[in-house]
Design brief:
Blueprint (H helix, E strand, L loop, with lengths): L1 E13 L2 E3 L5 E5 H7 L6 E6 L5 E9 L6 E4 L11 E11 H6 L3 E3 L8
Parallel strand pairs: 1-8, 2-6, 3-5
Antiparallel strand pairs: 1-7, 3-6, 4-5, 4-7
Length: 114
């Protein structure tokens, strides 16, 4: 039996941009992606601490060291610049394997920096 478990989490980053005219996704600073063990095009859940919204999208890379967290397309309507969000990804794995799996969780500092 496989179950879904937490794989990676970027805990409490600030939204720096919201671009309704982009096709869709969340742009995340490449430094944060590396630290959180996330990759471009990975499906993620966005949890907005400020308004309680929860929605899924996929990752695109933002410039390394930029601190950028930009919600694009329809997702831009679910946030305001300055909102605090959590970015969460999950993995499907065997139940027994999941018992010993340790997710990667990062806690960025001011400016969405490591």
């Amino acid at each position: 039996m496989n179950i879904e478990v937490l794989k990676s989490k970027i805990h409490r980053v600030k939204v720096t941009e919201a671009d309704i005219d982009y096709v869709g996704s969340i742009a995340i600073d490449e430094d944060l992606l590396d630290a959180a063990n996330m990759i471009e095009n990975e499906r993620v859940q966005i949890l907005n601490v400020d308004n309680g919204e929860r929605f899924d999208t996929y990752i695109i890379k933002a410039p390394r060291g930029s601190g950028e967290i930009c919600l694009n397309g329809p997702a831009a309507r679910r946030v305001q610049v300055g909102d605090i969000v959590l970015v969460v990804s999950y993995a499907s794995m065997d139940f027994e394997e999941a018992k010993s799996f340790s997710p990667t969780v990062i806690f960025p500092k001011e400016g969405n920096r490591l």
